[in-house]
Amino acid sequence: MNEELYSRTREQNGQEFRKATPNEIHVGQCVWINAHDPNVGRSWLEGPYFVTETIHENRMSEHFAVFSTHLNEERRVRHGDIWIPVIDTIKPPRGHNAK
Known about the structure:
Layout: H1 3-6, E1 9-12, E2 15-19, E3 30-37, E4 42-55, E5 63-68, E6 73-77, E7 82-85
Antiparallel strand pairs: 1-2, 2-7, 3-4, 3-7, 4-5, 5-6
């Protein structure tokens, strides 16, 4: 697996995203996808989408069906188009009576 490819991050609207590794993508996963407008010539992340199906699993042609509840549409995307939000975990605050 190419570690450098999957360690790439991208920020959009103050939220950080990273590329998903192939073994992280599964049915039910909440993901964001690359969207591109050829008329404008730029790309952005669009989401959230939910992975509903893996098509051609474990093949070179493997791709995923994703569904947006906001747009009420289904799309098919490849591994390279899927991004996962980076959610930092913080320790819960400790009060004065914590042991």
